[in-house]
Structures are given as C-alpha cells and as structure tokens.
Design brief:
Number of helices: 2
Largest sheet: 12 strands, antiparallel, barrel
Distance between the termini: 48 Å
Length: 286
C-alpha cells in the first residue's frame, strides 16, 4: 500500500509539473513579465485548516502562534454542558518562516503530552496568471510522547508523519488533496505501525471577513481497531490581526498522525465536538 501511494504521489507530481511547464511556456510565448506573475495569496486562511495543515506557509521572518482547543462530545447533553465539562485537548504551537517557501515549527499537545517538531516547504506556488496552476507543498513532522512513568524508551515514544499537499484557489473556492503517511515506532495494543490517509480540504470565502472550511480524512487500507474516518467543518473569522476558527470536529486529537491513529468517533452519526483555533502572525523582520 505504501508503494502504491508513493507511485500515486509521484504520478500526481509528474502531471502537475508537466502542466506547470506547459503553462510557463505559454506565458513566455505571450511575453508576460515574470515579476508581474505573483503567487496567489491566502489559498487557505491559516497554516492549519482545522486539524490538517494547508499549503499556506508562514512568510519569511514572521512567527505564527497558534492555539488549538477541542472539547468533549456535544451529544453529552446539558449535563456535560455539551462537552465543555469534559477534558479538553489543547495544542500550542509556533512556526517561523525561514523563507517565504520554508518554515519550521514546534508545538505541544495535552493528550499524551506530545511535543511535535515540523517543517513545511512549498515546491510550487500557484500564480495569478495561471502559469503555475497549483500550490504544491510537503510537510514532515516528528512527534514525541513525553508522558512520564509509562516505561518507554525514547525511541519507542517517537512517531513520524509526512504529507504532500496539492491545492488550487478558484476565485472564492479553494480545494486541497493531501496524501499522507504516519509511522509509530511502538504502537500500543493491536494498533499498527503504519497508516495511510488522504486528506480532502476546502475553503469558501463568503467575504473579506468570513469563510467556511471543512476537511475529511479517510484512512487508506488497514486501520487501527475501532477507529473511523475524521471529519470537521469550521467558520473562519478574520479579525485584522488574528484568524479565529470555530469548528465542529469528530476527532479530539491534534496533529495528523494522531487523528489518523486514534479518532474513534463518527461525525456523520452526530459524534462531534466544539473547538476553536486562534492563529496570530507576528512580523520579526527589520
């Protein structure tokens, strides 16, 4: 299955690159100036859509701070205050733009006290003239379970994640497809070392201040026992300095490999929870 996904990924990359070169040649024949062919901005409104990262990167010499907070299941009713009385999972993260196309970051999640170290690079940027028709980005990440007293060696605490992100913005609508793979050095119980998934994302801009976004993450091939495909939908609000996302999601986990491995709820059967994301970018350049 991993070989199949790899061949599929390289096939998509071949098609995208071929299309890109074709569009570039056409642009040259039309003698369009290179410096007027600017990248399309804000394909998605934040580096993370809800739980899945997007092609959008942090600009050079800028720092993105993020807080992701997810409560318990809403179907717990008023006795559980619709999930808000239940334990919440929070991730606080930082991402810094080394260049406009390359960023590094880290974060910490409450569940399993997971610390993640990640990077994202844009291989292609969609351009306003269409000379490059899509954005193409790669993300890699390492997660470290820092829970004490669980009797694991350091190497057994590690998990790894990689994904290819292919996205395109068409006026108000943005779409992204994300083949992804996760590996856990020491899975618990009957869980698997390797998992494959395919993230499907959209963002629709209602106006300059509001957008609706969603995502669906089906597992490809074998999955961990009792787990289900994750789904989420959000309202994005641009406040001038922040991107504030209010969402309903089936998974309470953050970071893609943990969503793939541990989501046990079914969004389409009413198993979803309330949450919010806050993203704030600070300019650190001179």
């Amino acid at each position: 299955m991993i070989r199949s996904l790899t061949r599929f990924t390289f096939y998509l990359l071949f098609l995208i690159l071929g299309t890109s070169f074709s569009y570039t040649a056409e642009a040259q024949l039309q003698r369009e100036r290179v410096d007027t062919d600017q990248p399309v901005e804000d394909i998605f409104w934040a580096p993370v859509n809800i739980g899945i990262s997007t092609v959008d990167n942090v600009p050079s010499k800028n720092l993105n701070t993020s807080v992701i907070h997810t409560f318990g299941l809403i179907n717990g009713g008023i006795d559980r205050f619709f999930g808000m009385d239940d334990g919440a999972n929070t991730r606080i993260g930082l991402e810094y733009g080394i260049t406009d196309r390359f960023s590094v970051g880290m974060g910490r999640m409450t569940f399993n006290k997971v610390v993640d170290i990640n990077s994202k690079i844009n291989l292609l940027r969609q351009t306003e003239t269409g000379s490059t028709p899509v954005d193409l980005a790669v993300k890699i990440s390492t997660g470290i379970n820092t829970t004490s007293g669980i009797g694991l060696e350091f190497s057994d605490r590690l998990s790894y994640f990689t994904s290819l992100k292919i996205a395109r913005k068409m006026e108000a609508l943005s779409l992204q497809i994300t083949p992804m793979a996760a590996y856990f050095n020491s899975p618990s119980g009957a869980n698997l070392n390797r998992l494959l998934g395919l993230g499907l994302l959209f963002n629709y801009e209602l106006n300059d201040r509001f957008a609706i976004s969603g995502e669906y993450l089906p597992i490809l091939g074998d999955r961990n026992p009792g787990t289900h495909n994750a789904a989420a939908i959000a309202l994005n609000i641009y406040t001038g300095g922040h991107i504030f996302q209010i969402f309903l999601a089936s998974s309470q986990w953050h970071n893609e490999q943990y969503i793939m491995a541990f989501n046990r709820d079914r969004f389409w059967e009413g198993d979803f929870r309330f949450g919010f994301n806050i993203h704030r970018i600070f300019g650190l350049g001179s």
